[in-house]
Design the sequence.
């Protein structure tokens, strides 16, 4: 069983990284998005009142500084607080937030376990009674992230289907796949929670497991931990085929669509890209747009039949 766990885990991590990398590369190669130009843009100097560099005289001759730190902070706050949901539906937010945090922290927990295993192979003891302060801190962080993942994920996986069935508005947009995901994720988080509470309160099994992965030594684990690890590996393989890709697309949408305020200047790379896209032929038609025209032709003609002018 230990060898199977090692093989399955390596496959799961290689698979999810490869599929997400393929998806991101595909998204980045897609044609230019339709510009929003909705203000405020978070990286702008005067974003608080919706200002932009267009307010400056001869703005095209001046540098356009961007506050990248503010953009990153907003993205992190959005993922860890989800304030828009709190404003619009606090009861839904009460279950949605821990469910999302459970996802984030269970990934973080396993990544930290990997680094803990590396440290342990170099002699660091990671435990509450570790002779090293670093080992004690590492142990506390692992316990915190694992606890948030198991408790938050389980709570959210139980509460999300209930709130969606109870709320008529949410129920309208819920699909059978959503409820399958809640049940499956409940098995992932719930199995980790039960293993933690009933068998492994210090989460030592996971450190042993990751040491086995790093050293390619099949670990000896209790059945509850084995079940959770298998479920988590399947969870990683399944994720790229779910809506959970929005954890990545959400960030891309912020930085490359919502906050993209680069100007289309003469002779710029953007102008060349737009001109190339405008020469593409339309593959559809309508009453006002005949098929076969380029986007440039469609944009510069009304598509309406010409009317004859009355002679004076």
Sequence:
């Amino acid at each position: 069983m230990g060898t199977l766990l090692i093989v399955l885990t390596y496959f799961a991590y290689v698979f999810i990284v490869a599929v997400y990398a393929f998806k991101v590369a595909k998204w980045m190669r897609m044609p230019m998005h339709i510009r929003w130009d909705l203000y405020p843009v978070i990286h702008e100097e005067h974003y608080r009142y919706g200002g932009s560099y267009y307010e400056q005289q001869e703005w095209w001759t001046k540098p356009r500084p961007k506050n990248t730190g503010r953009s990153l902070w907003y993205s992190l706050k959005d993922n860890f607080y989800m304030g828009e949901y709190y404003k619009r539906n606090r009861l839904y937010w009460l279950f949605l937030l821990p469910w999302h945090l459970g996802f984030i922290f269970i990934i973080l927990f396993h990544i930290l376990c990997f680094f803990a295993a590396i440290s342990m192979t170099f002699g660091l003891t990671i435990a509450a009674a570790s002779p090293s302060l670093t080992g004690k801190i590492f142990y506390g962080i692992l316990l915190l992230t694992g606890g948030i993942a198991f408790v938050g994920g389980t709570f959210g996986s139980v509460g999300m289907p209930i709130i969606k069935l109870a709320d008529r508005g949410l129920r309208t947009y819920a699909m059978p796949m959503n409820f399958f995901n809640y049940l499956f994720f409940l098995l992932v988080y719930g199995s980790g929670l039960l293993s933690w509470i009933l068998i492994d309160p210090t989460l030592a099994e996971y450190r042993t497991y990751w040491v086995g992965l790093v050293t390619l030594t099949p670990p000896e684990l209790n059945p509850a931990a084995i079940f959770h690890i298998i479920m988590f590996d399947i969870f990683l393989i399944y994720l790229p085929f779910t809506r959970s890709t929005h954890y990545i697309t959400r960030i891309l949408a912020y930085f490359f669509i919502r906050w993209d305020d680069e100007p289309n200047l003469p002779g710029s790379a953007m102008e060349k890209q737009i001109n190339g896209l405008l020469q593409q032929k339309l593959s559809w038609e309508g009453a006002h747009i005949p098929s076969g025209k380029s986007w440039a032709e469609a944009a510069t003609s009304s598509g309406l039949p010409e009317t004859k002018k009355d002679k004076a």
Remarks:
- The chain has two domains: 2-30+67-241, 278-311.
- The chain has a mean pLDDT of 90.
- The chain has twelve helices and no strands.
